[in-house]
Structure formats: C-alpha cells, structure tokens
Amino acid sequence: MTTRTGTDEVNQGDGGNAVNGGDGGDGGNAVNGGNTGARRPDRAHRVRRARRAGRAGQYAALLAYLAFLCFPFLWLVSTAFKPPRELGSLHPTWIPEDPTLANFRQAFDEQPLLQAAANSLLIAVSAAVVAVVIATPMAYVMARHRTRLAKAATGWVVVSQAFPFVLLIIPLFLILKNLQLINTLTGLVMVYVVWSLPFALWMLTGYVRAVPAELEEAAAVDGAGRARTLVSVTAPLLAPGIVATAMFAFITAWNEFFFALVLLKTPEKQTLPVVLTHFIGAEGVADLGPLAAAAFLATLPSLVIFAVIQKRITGGMLAGAVKH
C-alpha cells in the first residue's frame, strides 16, 4: 500500500521501510540526511588530504633549496681536508679517505692569510658601523615623514641597486685619487659605506614603519621629549633591524672583491678575497687544496656571526612594549 503526503512518497511495508529508513513522511528526510552526513566527511577528508599534500610539497621544496645551498659549502669542506692524491682522483668521494691538515698549513705558509683577514675584518666592521649610524636617523625621517621628497628618495634607493660595479669604479677611483685615498683602507671603507647605504636605508625604513607610532605618542604624553623618545622607545624596538642591517653591510664588505682588487695595490693592505686569487697560477691552474682550505676559513666569520645573532634577527622586540 502506498500513501502520498504532499510531494513525498512513503512505502508502508518492510521493503519500503528498508529503502527509506523512516515512517510516514519522515522517510525522505532520513534519506537526505544520511546522504548529507556522508558527503560532509568526504569533503573534509579531501580538504585535509590537500593540505597535507601542500605542506609536504613545501617541505620538499625547502629541503631541495637547502641542499642546493649547502652542497658548495659541504664540497668545499671535503676538499679542504683531502690530500693531493684524492684531489686528483677520477672518482671523488664526499668524505676524505685520509683527511689531512696539510692544506691549511700550506695555505698559511704561502700567503699572508692572517694579515688579509685582519684587513677584511677591520674594513667590514667599520663599514657596517658607519652605514648603520648614517642610515638609522635617515630611515626614521623617511618612515615618519612621508613627503614627496621621501618617496623620491626611496625610489632612488631602489634604482641605485641596479647599477653595476663597472659604471661606478671609474668615478670612485678618480674621487679617491683626488682625496689621496687610493691604496688605503679608509678609502675602501668609504666605498663600501656608499655601496651598502642605499639598501641599508631601505631595510631600516621598513623596520621603522613596523614600530607603532602610538608608542611614541604615549611617551610624549608621559612627558618624554623627541630625543628621549627616540633613544628610550624607538631605538630598542629597532634593535633587530639594526642588527640585520649591520650584518648585511658586514657580509657585503667581507665578501667584496672587485673594489678591493682595483683600489688596493700593496700586498699587506689587500683583503682576504683578493689574497685567495693568489692560489691560482699564471696559467690559470689552481692549487686546489690550499685554496679550498683558505676559502673555508674565509667563510667561517660570516657563519659564526650569523649563528650568534640569528635569534636577535628573528626575534621580535615589540612584545611587552605596549603598556597594560
């Protein structure tokens, strides 16, 4: 027997109850509810599976990029500890079979690495400090006073990074020659400051804009003057940006080769990247073992500095700045 109620049809028998799973007019609702309940878990499962696949893809890409970055350094370390017999092998290995320190001893005996490292350290630290000292107040002005002049200066900063070294070396050489700063560490520091200052200014401007202006307004309400506000409130919050900018300027000066090669002539004043080229003979044949050992030593300062201050760079300084 079949009963019609509105638009729903319900079978009054065992077969109808089994099919529709309900009594009277509720059978259609029971069927629809069951389909919806089955559809929702499937959709949620697909979403979770897609998210896991996307996360796995991101991790795989990150690992591939990390391997791409680490491969040259790991191969450099391996080469630095290999004896000449393994360096000339047709089947090189990752791990030296007979590791030795002879390459390091030979590198120090052949070239003045300590003097070159001292010159590079002095130049890099000086350039980083001067660049940060100049860029910090300039970045504050550009971030807090967004005039047309500040926007034009920001645009010029970005455009200046596109200039190649070759376009700058001749004017810089003539200027330093007139100032009698050729073949001096002071002249090279000035060049590095000028070269790193635009990017340092651009970096610090972004950090200053991230500091809430309400903190400075609150300090002014409490009676602090402009100088006291900058020193006591804004400067501590800019510490991560200042450290990151100083590290950028340091690494730029530490690794730079072209300006140092052109401007420094005396061997005792040359920097470490220039001295590394001395391990390559007149015919272009490199003394691979000592060169790898010296290059490995040249990369250590950057790695150590980054390992020491990486928490300072990534850690936020705004926590606890807002008064409760």
UniProtKB/TrEMBL annotation:
CDD domains: TM_PBP2 (cd06261)
Membrane topology, from the record: Multi-pass membrane protein
Sequence intervals crossing the membrane: 56-77, 121-143, 155-176, 188-208, 229-254, 291-309
Bias (Gly residues) ranges: 13-36
Keyword Iron-sulfur attached: no
PROSITE patterns xref list: ABC_TM1
Residue span of region Disordered: 1-49
Domain ABC transmembrane type-1, chain residue ranges per copy: 117-309
Subcellular location(s) of the protein: Cell membrane
Keywords, alphabetical: Cell membrane, Membrane, Transmembrane, Transmembrane helix, Transport
InterPro entries referenced in this protein's UniProt entry, alphabetically: BP-dep_ABC_trans_perm (IPR050901), MetI-like (IPR000515), MetI-like_sf (IPR035906)
Family the entry assigns: Belongs to the binding-protein-dependent transport system permease family.
Protein name in UniProt: Carbohydrate ABC transporter permease
Organism of this sequence: Streptomyces formicae
